[in-house]
């Protein structure tokens, strides 16, 4: 019986809850410390000038000879941005052994992250480091809450350090963040899942850190979406896609919109 047991998402063995590790996603080293979530409904109201609470606070500030801008900033911190994960995001989805094993891949990703994915630098990485970067990102999708009911076909690819190729159903794309990916420059970084046509056939997951946005999907991205394939980092001609280009659209925008409408219900 496995009632009290938790299954590790990587080795698929069952463990007692206390034998699971508490992993952070994204890792603490890559910007998981100060995550905020915007209260999008309030935020839109505020943008439209329709937030009586804020108006009142500002007129009170002016009356008291305080700086209205300071007041607005304070309001933003206290009422629009809430600490989403005060201790960072954690999940118990991996056993200790697998978590330690993935630590090697995370080290490789950290190199990629600290070089901002810069092709000049990444091209100089060893092949082993590059494949570890690829595997680190695939592995992160094992831990997101929205993917817990999915049996991914890339477990062997991740588990075998020697394996250089993956030809399964899932594609992994990414872009580097810039002003075009984030509302007024604020990067909020939740995870998500979209059922693209509502029929359960085309699934897209998203996770991100404060530099990159990753999408895992069981179909080829639409040609107009400009994104890197994660395997691009292995290639000699790797170049980095930054931001969302013009009107071409992106998975990320759909995630932002979906969340916004959820908040408006
Ligand atoms: Zn395990």
From TrEMBL:
It comes from the Bacteria. PROSITE patterns: ZINC_FINGER_C2H2_1 (PS00028). This is C2H2-type domain-containing protein. Residues 8-28 form the C2H2-type domain. It comes from Holdemanella biformis DSM 3989.
